Amino acid sequence: MILPLFAMRGTVPRMVKVALAGYFAYLVFPSLSAQTSFFAKSYNLYFDYDGSFTLEYIMLLVGEGLIGIIMGLYVSMIFAAFSTAGQFFAFQMGFSASEVYDALSQVENPLMGQYFNLIGMLIFLQNHWFQILFKDALTASFNTLSAFSIVSANEGIMFFFLKSLTYLFLNAFTLAFPIIGTLTLIMVAMGMLSKAAPQMNLFSEGFSITMLVAFFLITELMPGMCEFFTHSFVDGFRTLEKFFIQVSGGIQ
């Protein structure tokens, strides 16, 4: 329940989260309760089929929850790249002082970061990736991963998230670079003109100029940005799938 959509405070009621978790557990439980399932083979030493279990089994269930936390954090990092891209050029655009509470990241976020977050969420829902995460990714994780795999790959998990942070800033800078570069050239041009003709006082008009140019660039680049959002999600899910295959020892 730490996916960006469910992590929004006040957006999804707690009863809906509990109901969805219970419904998903009801659908998955028959395939996991079979004696031939991967889940039963991994944990058969810690519980009996008459219903009794040990304390270690409870700790292993907590480890299963850690798998879902890893998935949710990684998807949140993909959205964080969009928000960071908006923060990169919000200062040059003149919107650095105008911040609003972002329910997605639960922090104060500039307006452009909030705007990119909402665009990314719309693309995320439009392409049914939310259903794919619940229907395919979580179900496959029960059949291929266990808490033992996560514990044995603790160093790999750290390296995975450090690498993901690197790609977060890379994607954010790639997304914001056209706007940052254009606004930088405008600021340099206005600085040169103000030195050549101080009586023109161009910096008093600089705020409105940079804001209008930035909105024009965002409008023109929006189709390419949406395609970039789509490729970010596709590459991110592919990377997450490869990581889980590596952790599980090649089981798909």
Task: Explain briefly what this protein structure is.
The protein is mainly alpha-helical and 252 residues long.
What would the average pLDDT be, to the nearest integer? 75
Percentage of β-strand residues: under 5%
* Distance N to C terminus: 24 Å
Strand numbers in spatial order across the main sheet: 1-2
**Which value, in Å, is the CA radius of gyration?**
23 Å
Please work out how many helical segments DSSP would assign. Answer: 9
Order of helices and strands: HHHHEEHHHHH
Which regions are unreliable across 5 or more consecutive residues at pLDDT < 50?
none
Dominant shape: elongated
Structural class based on helices, strands and sheet pairing: mainly alpha
Oligomer: single chain
* Helix percentage: over 70%
Could you explain how this protein is built, in words?
The chain is mostly helical and 252 residues long. The protein has helices at residues 4-7, 14-33, 38-43, 55-93, 111-126, 129-144, 147-152, 154-196, 203-247; strands at 99-102, 107-110. The protein is elongated and about 90 Å long. The model has no long low-confidence stretch (mean pLDDT 75). Helix 4 (55-93) packs antiparallel against helix 9 (203-247). The chain has a two-stranded antiparallel ribbon.
What labels describe this entry?
252 residues, mainly alpha, two-stranded antiparallel sheet, 9 helices, elongated
Write the layout of secondary structure elements.
Elements: H1 4-7, H2 14-33, H3 38-43, H4 55-93, E1 99-102, E2 107-110, H5 111-126, H6 129-144, H7 147-152, H8 154-196, H9 203-247
Antiparallel strand pairs: 1-2
Helix pairs in contact: 4-5, 4-8, 4-9, 5-9, 8-9
